[in-house]
Amino acid sequence: MNQKIYQRIIFDTQGDISRVTSEYVKETFDVTCDQKFSTIEDYVYYIDNQCLNTYFSKIWQPDMKKWKYSGLKLVDEVNSLNPRSVLDVGCGYNEFKGKIHNLTGIDPYNDRADHKISIMDFQPNQRFDVVLCLGSINFGSRDKITAEIAKTVLLLEQGGTMFFRVNPGVNHDRPEARWILFFAWNVPFIIELAEQFNLKVLDIRDDANLRKYFVYRKI
Ligand SMILES: C[S@@+](CC[C@H](N)C(=O)[O-])C[C@H]1O[C@@H](n2cnc3c(N)ncnc32)[C@H](O)[C@@H]1O
User: Fold this and answer.
1) Closest CA to ligand 1's atom 23
2) How far does the centroid of ligand 1 lie from the alpha carbon of residue 207, in Å?
3) Gap between the Cα atoms of 184 and 162, Å rounded
4) Could you list the mean pLDDT of each consecutive 10-residue stretch along the chain, which spans 219 residues?
């Protein structure tokens, strides 16, 4: 759960759900909420999703050229693996489409995705030789991140490769990103996940803008 949003609601309402009105939600989070929920957690989930939607559908813009390892360089790197299928999780504007072979882009908030869906809701009838998670498994709590990693591992073929770009918890500058919870990725967590999900760490590097680039193989 997004603790930034949860803590703010608890602070403002002292836990009294009747004070979580549509006016309060609009004023505090700039989110339209015409529904009534029976728990504060449900409000948090809804507001979090709306904030992510506003930011990633209207405000955030990509810049693939700025990445040393996790941008355009991946085109040749992934194609050299001759993948039969590639999944781009959180593809944004789907910029690898037509450049990386056999690629499907999913994203819950961007209309350019092949499937407008989140990683947790995506139920394909195949596995993928390569999965890209470039800045997209980075929002919310440790539990949410771990569940999303578990799902990507499930979608990856045995012996398949996953490429990541992750944020160490740095907020984006725009005010619309204020309520987004950026998970603070770090190297010990990358290694811990590898052990938990039986993955081999093939590479870890510092990319631009304090981001980490790393590569897993499913063994
Ligand atoms: C920082 S952008 C990166 C986009 C693109 N991968 C790139 O490198 O330019 C993060 C993307 O992750 C997407 N995203 C957020 N939550 C997601 C989820 N649960 N499942 C899949 N994609 C998600 C956002 O909509 C956004 O397009």
Assistant:
1) 90
2) 17
3) 20
4) 96 96 97 96 98 97 96 98 98 98 98 98 98 98 97 98 97 95 98 98 98 97
